[in-house]
Amino acid sequence: MSQTAEDRYADFYARQLSSPTLARIYRDVYGDDHPEELRPFGFVTRTDLARFAALLELRPGMSFVDLGCGRGGPGIALARAAGARLLGLDPLAVAVEGARELSVSLGLPGARFAVGGFTATGLEPESRDAVLSVDALWMVWNKRAAFAEVARVLRPGGRFVFSTWEPSYLDHGGLLAAAGFTVTAKEEAERWLERQLRVYELVRAQAAALEAELGPGASVLLEEARDTPATLPSSPRVIMAATKAG
């Protein structure tokens, strides 16, 4: 797991669902756009999910990977809607176990989840039709290696769709081109900045309740809420799509 910072979130994932305060924060900020039934941690919305679906163009029987899947909700929702076959990979065993449980409760027991990362998926070359990643790529240190691995496992013409934050010094498009992709879409997520800042404001205001509910897992969340807001105006949350050369 040395290629990511995700291991810092292990304690948080273990107790996330025990925090009614955190659930209420996202519900209050995002309203009906919050896919609460998917148990997400982060800023994904129903609007985002609809855009991912349009860009991935999944069809029944297609096979796709959700990289950095966490508890797996977005990938499960997209696979269920399209009749596609899902494999979710995440470096954290606790997240993978949560994804397996969620897939059963959401009516997709055939979905598979395993421990794995962006730069070492363990998958056969050219074995998947599409790859999805939702708000996880920012934690990958070696993005060049990550994009090369995505290209390796995708079939020619396969689609790679992801959301992440893009600071001014980072050119995801250039990295994708170097890995053999053609970028087909790049856009800022809808109303991302105002809502993300509001989440952090409420997290800071509810620090005591979150610490009581999340235990040690609260520390990484509170650190993020304290340190991230200053960087956001120059690091837009983007949704990108790219196609592997065929």
Protein model, in words:
The protein is an alpha/beta fold and 246 residues long. The protein has one domain: 3-Layer(aba) Sandwich (Rossmann fold). The chain is 41% helix and 20% strand. A seven-stranded mixed sheet has the order 3-2-1-4-5-7-6, sandwiched between helices.
What can be said about this structure in brief?
The chain is an alpha/beta fold and 246 residues long. It is 41% helix and 20% strand. It contains ten helices and seven strands.
| Residues in β-strands, percent | 15-25%
| CATH architecture field | 3-Layer(aba) Sandwich
Characterize the overall form.
globular
Radius of gyration: 17 Å
Count of spatially separate domains:
1
Biggest sheet: strands side by side, in what order? Answer: 3-2-1-4-5-7-6
The total beta strand count reads: 7
Tell me the name of the CATH homologous superfamily.
Vaccinia Virus protein VP39
Oligomer: single chain
Q: What number is the mean pLDDT?
A: 94
CATH topology, by name, is Rossmann fold
Assigned CATH class: Alpha Beta
Number of helices in the DSSP assignment:
10
What is the CA–CA distance across the termini? 31 Å
Features:
alpha/beta; globular; 246 residues; 7 strands; 41% helix; Rossmann fold; single chain; 7-stranded mixed β-sheet
Topology overview:
Blueprint: H1 10-15, H2 20-30, H3 46-56, E1 63-67, H4 73-82, E2 85-90, H5 93-105, E3 112-115, E4 128-134, H6 143-153, E5 154-165, H7 172-178, E6 181-188, H8 192-205, H9 207-214, H10 218-227, E7 237-244
Parallel strand pairs: 1-2, 1-4, 2-3, 4-5
Antiparallel strand pairs: 5-7, 6-7
